[in-house]
Every structure is written in C-alpha cells, then in structure tokens.
Amino acid sequence: MKPHDTWADVYDFAYEQEFKAFYTRLTQSTLATVRSRVRPGSSIVDFGAGTGRLAIPLAREGYKVTAVEPSAPMLARLHAGADSLAIEQVCTSMQEFRRGTAFDLALCVFSVLNYLLDHESLASALSNAVDCLRPEGALILDVADRGLFGNRNFNGARLQRHVTVRAIDPAVHEYTESITLPGDPPRHYQDRFLIRHWTVDEVLDTAARCGLGVAQELSEELPGAGARYFLLRPMPGR
Ligand SMILES: C[S@@+](CC[C@H](N)C(=O)[O-])C[C@H]1O[C@@H](n2cnc3c(N)ncnc32)[C@H](O)[C@@H]1O
Questions:
Q1: How far is CA 26 from the centre of its chain?
Q2: 30 lines ligand 1 (CB under 6 A)
Q3: CATH class in words for 5-146+199-234
C-alpha cells in the first residue's frame, strides 16, 4: 500500500471542500507561474502528479505532460480526468523514474518532497530531476513550512476530515487521515503513512550537491500555501 491509495477517490473533493477558493486560487497561480516560464508545446514532467490538479490543465493548454505518480489509485483518477488528453502516465516514484529524453520543466509541488523520508531518497529524487532536464530546463519545487505539520479538523456538511500529525522524531512524523462522507450509509476513508519535514537549507544544499542551483524564489507568486517555492536550474557544466 502506498500513501493516498485508500482515499484517492475522495482526495480532490476533500481538498476542494476544506480549502475551497484558496485551493482554486493556488492552482491558478501555480499554472500562471508555469505559463510565464515555458510556452505551450514545451515538455513538462510532473513528479507526484497526484490526481492531475496541474497535469490535466497544462495538457489542456498544449503542454506535453508526463505525470509521474507512485500511487496507482491516484494515477487512475488522473487517467479518468485526463479523458482524451495525451498525458503520459508513469506509475513510479520520483527516485525511480528513468527517461532518455530531456524535459523543459519539472514540477515537484504541493508537499511531494515530504514523502521522502531520508537524505538518500531526497538526493536520488533531486539528482533524477536534474538528469531528466535539458541544460536550460528548470525544476519548480516547494518546501513545506513546519506549520503544515499540525492536526486539522474540518467539519463541513458534505465532508468531515480529521488529520493528525504525530512527531516520531524531530523530522519524521506519522500522518493519519480520516474522512467521512455523511449519507446512508456514511462512507469512511482512513490512511496512515510517514512524512518528513525538510528545512529549506536541507533541500537546497542537497539540490546543489545534485547540480541544481536556485535561480529564483517564487514564494511571492504563490502566497499563503504554507510553503516556500523555488525555481532551480541545472548548474553549468554539471
Ligand atoms: C499532496 S499530493 C500533491 C499532488 C500534486 N503534486 C498536486 O500539486 O496536486 C502528493 C503526491 O505525491 C505523491 N508521492 C508520494 N511519494 C512520492 C515519490 N517518492 N515520488 C513521487 N511522488 C510521490 C503522492 O502519492 C501524492 O499523490
């Protein structure tokens, strides 16, 4: 079992219900950030694409999108939403993805790095990202603030959601998701997996060791997400 497998069917609904207009705004701002860096027709690899929140609209706008996602049920939702759009779908992790051709842009956003639990995985994910970029390509990633590692309760009329985050050590946490959709009968969804808090320095130092340098901080373009966003580029001569 992979994180998200058990509640992929209600993942989008849960975020839409809990975060409402903010979630839509964040998606729109992230798409605008991509559009202002690469033109339609460019190739984009979306690491941890989830259900296609970004991959689907980008493909609709004419980008050549490859969605990399280790959870088969999440990828199945993306597949259903993609309809007739040509999105290449690869069910694997960022660390294991292999590709001969190079992309113009890689995305790794909305807490994807938090699923990497040790320094070795972070390094192999980031070195894989740089390996699959063109020399003038770019990687956009986010680093979630510690503030996101807290308990949350949402009690809406159409969905109740309880998230608990328990520290196992200063970095690694146990994340528990519990969702109920009221009805007769009500439907319940549960998930439990480990996540890790990475500091900005840990991520950027590891990225630098992998040959990726920060070209720009994008956090002001994507405010309120509880994360810092960066655009990194392969270092010359790496
Ligand atoms: C919070 S979701 C974000 C989805 C999407 N990036 C978005 O912006 O909506 C995190 C996703 O990362 C995926 N994931 C977990 N471990 C991963 C890994 N090692 N490599 C790539 N994706 C991973 C999860 O399965 C999940 O779909």
A1: 13
A2: no
A3: alpha beta
